Amino acid sequence: MNYKIEKKVQSDINIVKNVVEDILLDIRDGLTESNFFNTKLILNELIINGVKHGNLDDINKSLFIDVLVNNSCLIIKVSDEGKGIKYKHKKLGEYDFCENGRGLMLVEGLADKVDINGNTVTCVQYLK
């Protein structure tokens, strides 16, 4: 089983749900229920973060979404056209009163590996 999806989408919060659903329809057969749920949450968080924080709700900018599923893992990579971030992992509880950062904390909890490099976030989930 190998799936590869590459999408360039408009940075519009109103299309996030449809983009996520389209991707999930293509890869659903290759995932367990648990992996499917985690993937849905990861995609939602990363795409929304790209729209809101990366592209600053500028619908003239784009998001670039790559999803690869093979026999051993699922890799999600989301890039925006923003300046990028320097993300510092916080301990559980340190997000309680923060206005942002909880989405990436959630992604870190759901994925087996997370790499944040400028304006690109790459997540790996091992398939069990």
UniProtKB/TrEMBL annotation:
Residues annotated as domain Histidine kinase/HSP90-like ATPase: 28-124
Entry-linked Pfam families: HATPase_c_2
Keyword Membrane: no
UniProtKB keywords: Kinase, Transferase
Listed GO MF terms: protein serine/threonine kinase activity
Enzyme class of the recorded protein, top EC level: transferase
EC number: 2.7.11.1
Signal peptide (UniProt feature, chain positions): none
Coiled-coil regions listed: none
Protein name: Serine/threonine-protein kinase RsbW
The species this protein was found in: Sedimentibacter acidaminivorans
